[in-house]
UniProtKB/TrEMBL annotation:
InterPro entries: Topless_fam, WD40/YVTN_repeat-like_dom_sf, WD40_repeat_dom_sf, WD40_rpt. It comes from Davidia involucrata (Dove tree). Keywords: WD repeat. One of its GO terms (biological process) is regulation of DNA-templated transcription. Coiled coil: none annotated. This is Uncharacterized protein. WD repeats lie at residues 99-128.
Length: 128
């Protein structure tokens, strides 16, 4: 990476161990444990701080972050294409900090700047 690493997300797919890393300049890279160098590179929405997590069953990849201007993003990735599959709606205001999130069952939790915890069903882009 050319910028500081911000977060890590381990990955184990088809018995291949790897890790996603995100940086302060909004780059997302996938690294294999056994090889030097990254295998895949994505640009995070907002091109700034982003964290990533898999659904509990390990089949779906999500990221949550903010732009330098404070706009928040929650997205699901199409891992094979390196493209955004869906964008979740519901952050009302801009956010100046880092958005925290976690996955549980088929729900997606995130906190924003309005001092609340927001919940989405992973299959619906609108808030519950």
């Amino acid at each position: 990476h050319e910028a500081s690493v911000y977060s890590l997300c381990p990955r184990n797919k088809d018995n291949v161990h790897s890790i996603f890393s995100t940086t302060l300049d909004g780059k997302i890279k996938l690294w294999l444990y056994k090889n030097l160098g990254s295998r895949i590179e994505y640009d995070a929405p907002g091109h700034w701080c982003t964290t990533m997590a898999y659904s509990v069953d390990g089949r779906r990849l999500f990221s949550c972050g903010a732009s330098k201007e404070g706009e928040s993003f929650l997205v699901e990735w199409d891992e094979g294409e390196g493209a955004i599959k869906r964008i979740y709606q519901g952050f009302q205001n801009y956010y100046f900090g880092v958005v925290q999130f976690d996955t549980m069952r088929n729900r997606f939790l995130a906190t924003g700047n309005d001092h609340s915890i927001k919940v989405w069903d992973m299959d619906n882009v609108n808030l519950l």
